[in-house]
Amino acid sequence: MQTSWVPGADQSGHSVHHLPYGSFTSPRNSEPRLGVRIGDRVLDLCDNAEDLAPEGPLRAALRRPNLQGLLPLGRESWDELRTSLQRFLTDPAKAHDLVDVSQVSLHAAFEPADYVDYYASEHHATNLGRLFRPDSAPLMPNWKHLPVGYHGRAGTLVPSGVNIKRPSGQRRTPDGEIVFGPSARLDIEAEMGFVVGAPTALGDTASVDSFADHVFGLCLVNDWSARDIQAWEYQPLGPYLGKSFATSYGAWITPLAALEAAKTEAPEQDPRPLPYLTEKDRYSYDIELAVTLNGTTVSRPNYRDMYWTPAQMLAHMTVNGASLRPGDFYASGTISGPERSQVGAFIELTWGGKEPMKLDDGTERTFLKDGDIVSITATARGAAGTTLELAEVTAGVLPAD
Amino acid sequence: MQTSWVPGADQSGHSVHHLPYGSFTSPRNSEPRLGVRIGDRVLDLCDNAEDLAPEGPLRAALRRPNLQGLLPLGRESWDELRTSLQRFLTDPAKAHDLVDVSQVSLHAAFEPADYVDYYASEHHATNLGRLFRPDSAPLMPNWKHLPVGYHGRAGTLVPSGVNIKRPSGQRRTPDGEIVFGPSARLDIEAEMGFVVGAPTALGDTASVDSFADHVFGLCLVNDWSARDIQAWEYQPLGPYLGKSFATSYGAWITPLAALEAAKTEAPEQDPRPLPYLTEKDRYSYDIELAVTLNGTTVSRPNYRDMYWTPAQMLAHMTVNGASLRPGDFYASGTISGPERSQVGAFIELTWGGKEPMKLDDGTERTFLKDGDIVSITATARGAAGTTLELAEVTAGVLPAD
């Protein structure tokens, strides 16, 4: 294990084997800068650009306010910077006073280009099929042949910490009446999001084996969902206003390179997918999530249970020639395991609102009340026996107007 | 009628009562600039910024390579610039040599933020319902209560002139086999697209009566659609790869102000929509489209037949608090009238590929062949008895890899 000069870093979820990237302001800098979290501190990449990178595009990228300069440079530059950061943070000669993470405000870590949301958990898709279409087979015939996905609204992706106003919209009452008002079934979806770095040209594809060449890193996602709005609007063109009011993401992006030790086998697929979805080296990530509502941990999904891998989702997204841009973002869809205690959405956890959750404060919940605070956290194995703590996604629910 | 010093402009579809905006390069400028089309010429807004706008944000906006500087400034600035352009182009003292439109290359007129595609034609939705779901009611129960829409891929919006590679993907054969290959049912959708200028904050709404405050202008759209990919993938989360490979738009954006004389009554709605979708002043636009395939005009849809108006689509998009960004783009969905000769997609025109179209060259078509060229054009009434010609959307089909 490498030893950092940052006090407490080695034993934390943010050792030199993690090094997630974010955009921050602090009492020292009022304009957002790119930083790396180490222990309970933040290394300012702008201030240290000369030490960290040779003259050229990589050094220039460190002086940008977020990841947008680094993303298009590709895997070789990302790895070069990671090595340089680890050397810097373990070299006692470089020790200096870093800003405390409690003193910083986090901003958009990247500029979202397009946002795609998948539906990659067999358990979640099966549960939602049963709840939304009780009279049909829960999985559509296409589900095991391709990773089902759709485009979401990139403009309403917000970093953790931005509170979310309850959306209003149309819904149909059980009597068949069409009414307008604040959503009465506001839900969460605990997901994993992937930040695309290296772009492709229109007409090109990114193969299933090129995942690590194109994807820079990942973060937790809360894909807020207004189930009553969604149920009424979604046929035949898919979810729209039931999702587009906000999607929250963890504001520190964990680089893929930090997750080598968390790689694990992905579920076997039957039927075998088409060649463009077949990986030479098929793997998923063992990442243990916790969903917490007002302080009570209500569920513990694990990412390794997802049927479709992030490499398959990337290959599918581009197999028709759709181009990739730095800042494209795709999410896994709700991460749900086989047990009720492992599902990533309240609609599953409470079985359509019929079986309330009990919270530690003695109250019960089906869907979210105004003032509720939702937090999604996660840990994974890092290099050299360390544990990574992924950046939490935390936000409160504000009342509708 | 105002008389321009640009030769031939007054009698053309591009008099001073039109003045669409585009981003162009020419033998004189190799970096894109913002320009206005007048007659067969292009006025360079960068070169003439001092004459056209006082010192400040408006003048700065004219020095940007596309509309992104102008869009956030809002209706008052847009109208101020239009008055100034009309004064300039009718003042003989300002006469000078303008670049010929045949000498320019057009670029992205704006930077697409989010892209939403609606489904606002009752005739189109009914036809597609019959073709895709022959055993159910053609319109879903929600269709007359809200403008059904979904997010598309903003990163693959391309201006007219960019040829489109036939996408490959999964489809299910009539025997139920899942195969991969180039789409065998490549289609078009003739639509109208609306460019959002003035933004809103997250949590705010843009009311149905604020349409002209937020929307800068419009253009023709060809929403290329791979029907075989779409039919297999679209349930339950909507169209994805069947659409995301490319969407073409007319590269000169016609400002809303040019279309005052084209305003017309919109179809009456039954049932009456909810208050947030009810306009004080309900109107549509009388815009006559022509769809041409390899030189044969195969259809003549009119925009006025659309059930949901652009104001209703804007209000719906934001009623849940989703924010607007300058460069957000939303399209109407296929423009189809009641007659077979007025439909905006080949799947309707050939009734699912069963009734081929005859072209003037003696060949027949159901869906597109490699090398085919599709052109969508349109005219509308302008001020003072003029006729506006909207910028065409023209592109050819390139073979799959």
Automatic annotation (TrEMBL), chains A, B:
One Pfam family from the record: FAA_hydrolase
Annotated segments matching region Disordered: 1-24
Alphabetical list of Gene3D superfamilies matching this protein: Fumarylacetoacetase, N-terminal domain, Fumarylacetoacetase-like, C-terminal domain
InterPro entries: Fumarylacetoacetase, Fumarylacetoacetase-like_C, Fumarylacetoacetase_C_sf, Fumarylacetoacetase_N, Fumarylacetoacetase_N_sf
Annotated Fumarylacetoacetase N-terminal domain residues: 17-101
Enzyme Commission code: 3.7.1.2
Cofactor needs: Ca(2+); Mg(2+)
Biological or metabolic pathway of the protein: Amino-acid degradation; L-phenylalanine degradation; acetoacetate and fumarate from L-phenylalanine: step 6/6
One function term, GO molecular function aspect: fumarylacetoacetase activity
Keywords from the named record: Calcium, Hydrolase, Magnesium, Metal-binding, Phenylalanine catabolism, Tyrosine catabolism
Fumarylacetoacetase-like C-terminal domain ranges (all copies): 117-386
Identification of the protein by name: fumarylacetoacetase
Source species taxonomy: Bacteria, Bacillati, Actinomycetota, Actinomycetes, Glycomycetales
